[in-house]
Design a protein that fits this description.
Blueprint lengths: L2 H7 L6 H11 L6 E6 L11 H12 L4 E5 L21 H7 L15 H6 L6 E2 L7 E5 L2 H5 L13 H7 L3 E5 L8 H8 L6 E10 L2 E10 L6 H11 L3 E2 L6 E4 H15 L1
Parallel strand pairs: 1-2, 1-5
Antiparallel strand pairs: 2-4, 3-4, 5-9, 6-7, 8-9
Length: 266
């Protein structure tokens, strides 16, 4: 969406104050633990862009709350499996051997949007050390949520997703659908159905040296995420707001529901 299109979509610009008011009306409150998935373009034209969105979220949550966002880095997956776009076969080894090590402080996100890319650079934000599915957090429980993110099964019970679950957190879908809802991956890992197992490799920085590590994971799917998310909203419910078709969901309830749904439908 162009900037001109964003201006045409709204009667007046979004601001930190207007976004904060919309978030409070949705049910976001001081002290909450909030996992946010977002699309800046869905908000129309915002004065300050992604910075205004982050500022509004922090304003509403306050220092007593915790803001969490996925900061994934698909560039650290196996290049032989890349499809959007694919790379020539003779590039695969070169990419694998030359990729700089993943570093939480500097490695940019890929395909996550402007808001999490902005958020990861904020003072006080800490980021987990998983090379492909890291999360960033700010606030009272930030360290607790991102520290110790296990390499194996990076969206499972050793992940920040599980720490948000343990804290009874919420999921905010800000202009995106359940296809972007990473909490459904936690349900995938917990559900009892046959899964394809994989071994992944990625470079990390350890004691100042580039080290390639191997870790185990499952082949995750998203094709049915919209279906399970809609089923949850019908059966359990969610809160919808005016801003960017925002949806607020109880994360533990969502994960528990999706775990049962996957076991019955996959």
């Amino acid at each position: 969406m162009s900037e001109a299109d964003a201006i045409e979509r709204v009667d007046e610009p979004g601001t930190v104050d207007s976004l904060a008011a919309d978030l409070r009306a949705l049910g976001v409150a001081a002290g909450d633990t909030l996992l946010v998935h977002s699309s800046l373009s869905s908000l129309g034209w915002v004065a300050g862009g992604p910075q205004a969105v982050v500022d509004a979220l922090r304003t509403v949550l306050t220092d007593d709350g915790t803001l969490v966002m996925p900061t994934h880095t698909g560039q650290y997956t196996d290049p032989s499996a890349w499809e959007n776009p694919p790379v020539p076969d003779d590039w695969v080894d070169i990419i694998g051997e030359s990729m700089p090590p993943f570093r939480p402080d500097v490695t940019p996100t890929r395909g996550m949007g402007a808001v999490p890319e902005c958020f990861r650079n904020y003072p006080g934000v800490v980021r987990s050390e998983h090379p492909t599915v890291s999360f960033a957090a700010w606030g009272a429980a930030a360290e607790e949520i991102v520290t110790g993110h296990e390499l194996d099964y990076g969206l499972g019970d050793g992940s920040p997703l599980a720490r948000v679950y343990d804290r009874g957190g919420d999921v905010l879908l800000l202009g995106v659908g359940h296809g972007n809802n990473t909490s459904l991956h936690l349900a995938e890992h917990r559900a009892d159905f046959e899964k394809e197992r994989t071994t992944e490799r990625a470079p990390l920085l350890r004691d100042g040296e580039r080290v390639v590590v191997e870790y185990d994971d499952i082949e995750v799917e998203t094709d049915d995420f919209e279906e399970v998310g809609e089923a949850f909203e019908r059966a359990v419910g969610a809160t919808e707001g005016a801003v960017a078709a925002a949806t607020l969901l109880d994360q533990p309830a969502l994960v528990d529901f999706a775990e049962d749904w996957f076991e019955s439908n996959r």
